[in-house]
Amino acid sequence: MMASEQHGAVATATVPAPGTPRAPLPRARTRGRLVPLLVLLLLGQMAAAMVTTAVRQTPTIDEPVYVVTATDYLREHRVRYNAEHPPLGKLLIAAGVAVADPHYDPDTPGTQGDAGRHLLYESGNDPWRLMLWARLPVIALTLLCGLVVFAFARDLAGRAAALVALALYAFSPDVIAHGSLATLDLPMTAFLLTSVWLLWRARSRPRPYLPLAGAALGAAVATKMSALPAIPLLMVLAAWSVWHARAGAGRRRRVRSALAGASTVLLVALAVVWATYLVVDPRLGFAPAEPVPPLAGKRALVSGLLPLPPAYGAGLRMQFALEYYPWDGFLFGRVYSGALWYYLPVALLVKTPLGLLALGAAGVLTVLAVPRLRPAAVYLLVPPALLLAVAMTGARDFGTRYALFVPVFLALAGGCVTVWRRRWAGALAGVLVLWVAVSSLRAYPYYLPYANEAFGGPARTHELLHDSNVDWGQDLGALADRLRERYPHERVWLVYKGAGVPSYYGIRAADPRAVPPDRVRGLLVVSDSAVAKARGRLAELIRTSRPVGEVGHSITLYRR
Fold it and tell me: Any bridge partners for residue 555, and if so which?
């Protein structure tokens, strides 16, 4: 009897009554707390990298124009500067400019570049402070984009995939570099990624997610015109999501619902673009500081037929006109005129961490091979492939920033390798993520000129690429510090490619191209983008000089 009672007591203690909630296991509870902590740590190190990089960098070539445009939006409520880019990205920058509250002369004569330099250096403002505040909203958006990467990867393949994808994103040198600048490439990428993620979610709940996806797509198009080719593709994805969600309905009803879904995305996207211009100027006025170039042919017809504000069409004509300009490029030591169709893929191979390339490639194969991930292929692989193909047809071989979405989508694909339930697969993914992290941390704080180990690292990038891949004018302040510390009494000759004003930072230098070569004696300082494309007198000066140092892997110092 006693044994029976004891046995019954044990059974009662170990088997809960029906309906009684089970107590969470300690391991599951610990894991649930660990994931948010890891997310916080990854985004925290990313924030620290971006903020400390933003603090030390002088304005890059494009930033003064965006900052003065944002200031003009705030003070004058007009579309005057930088019409070749829609307003939303600059409205984001304006949130920081509003806090900085700079002195501003709305009647500054000259080009938009002149107005940007006047705002930063000739209006009594502190350019260090103003640029930091202008950059902070983009930094915040970059971190929010990291949360989208995490959420998208978790939806696709679970928490492990989400952590791997976020780690790859958070340590991506290109993402950190452009996420710490007051520019438009990262914001456009963030909005585009958000739209694709919401369309993926619309496969189960189209009613709440389709309008949000349209809003995110509209935000991308209202930030950079290079997002325009995504509109028809994302409309198709919207229709496909609705078709999947209405699997139980009749064929005709599914077709009508799919068309309605695509139309919803389009209409909401267009509404967001119009709303962006209305926020700047409720009268939709347009008074450009520089003339809009005339344009004929199919491109002129396209820019005129788009159901978008007149200023958007004018900006599109400006972009088309830039495509006709004979730009010079530089790739692997070769200077050329025009564009190379393979430039962007090659540049991405140089500037993407090897671990991210490997995990991204494995992730692509995983998405195509694993049945439960295969439906995600059109969402995960087709948008970046299409936009990259379009970007490869462009006339400006200036940098991987034109394809910044590639490493972001690669990070998402890389996270998907965790669906392989093999111990070696998890270990390999961990090793590759660690490799990406180490490669990124070793590059700190020189993220803009980053190159992976196969191409010699950041110190060798200037031998392979130029412009925003390496030298975008970001190290003028660091150059001033170097000259004060090591060459305080030297005669300095400077060829600087950037938007900064050397004299503001205490650099007293002359242009070596303006005097006979035999008078150029002392220290010759040349931006690496100018070195890459040097011709004539400058090429001869460099050839007859001895390299003695470098600044930020973007400026070379020579002794003459």
Answer: 527, 551
Q: Determine the Cα–Cα distance for residues 182 and 57; give it in Å rounded to an integer.
A: 11
- In order, the DSSP letters of 341-372 are TTHHHHHHHHHS-HHHHHHHHHHHHHHHHSTT
Q: What is the spatial distance between Cα 363 and Cα 257, in angstroms, rounded to a whole number?
A: 32
pTM recorded for the entire structure: 0.92
Looking at the DSSP bridge assignments, the partners of residue 527 are 555
Non-local (6+) Cβ contacts of 31 within 8 A are: none
What phi and psi, each to the nearest 5 degrees, are found at residue 393? -90, -5
Beta strands 523-527 and 492-495 are: parallel
Alpha-carbon separation of residue 377 from 201, 371, 416, 422 (angstroms): 14, 11, 11, 22
Query: Looking at beta carbons, which pairs linking 104-113 to residues 24 or more positions away fall under 8 Å?
Result: 104/71, 104/72, 104/75, 106/72, 106/75, 106/76, 111/289, 111/290, 112/65, 112/68, 112/69, 112/81, 112/82, 112/289, 112/290, 113/64, 113/65, 113/499
The per-residue pLDDT for 300 is 74
CA 85, 87, 89, 95 dihedral sign is positive
Please tell me the predicted confidence (pLDDT) of residue 20.
47
- The answer to whether 490 touches 552, Cβ cutoff 8 Å, is no
Q: Largest Cα–Cα distance of the chain, in whole Å? A: 113
Residues with Cβ within 8 Å of 20's Cβ and at least 6 positions away in sequence, in order, are none
Cα(190)–Cα(220) distance, rounded to whole angstroms? 8
Secondary-structure percent of the chain, ordered helix, strand, coil, rounded to 5: 65, 5, 30
Note every long-range contact of 484-489, with CB atoms under 8 Å and residues 24 or more positions apart, other chains counting.
Answer: 486/549, 487/523
- 557 contacts: CB under 8 Å, gap ≥ 6: 482, 523, 524, 525, 547, 548, 549, 550, 551
For residue 558, what is the DSSP state? E
Please report the pLDDT score of residue 296 as a whole number: 72
pLDDT (tens digit per residue) in 304-327:
788 999 999 999 999 998 988 889
CA angle 209, 234, 274 (to 5 degrees): 80
Burial of residue 75 (number of CB atoms within 10 Å: 0-12, 13-18, 19+): middle
pLDDT digits (tens, 9 = 90+) for 327-355: 999 999 999 999 999 999 999 999 999 99
Is residue 527 classed as helix, strand or coil in its secondary structure?
strand
Question: In which residue ranges of the chain is pLDDT below 70?
Answer: 1-31
Q: Judge residue 359's burial from the number of C-beta atoms within 10 Å of its C-beta, 0-12 exposed, 13-18 middle, 19 or more buried.
A: buried
Quick check: bond before 445 cis, omega within 30? yes
The Cα–Cα gap between 519 and 516 comes to 6
SS3 category, 548: strand
Q: Which of 313, 309, 303, 215 is nearest to 266 (CA)?
A: 215
Distance CA 165, CA 436 (A): 12
Task: Please count the other Cβ atoms lying within 10 Å of the Cβ belonging to residue 69.
Answer: 29
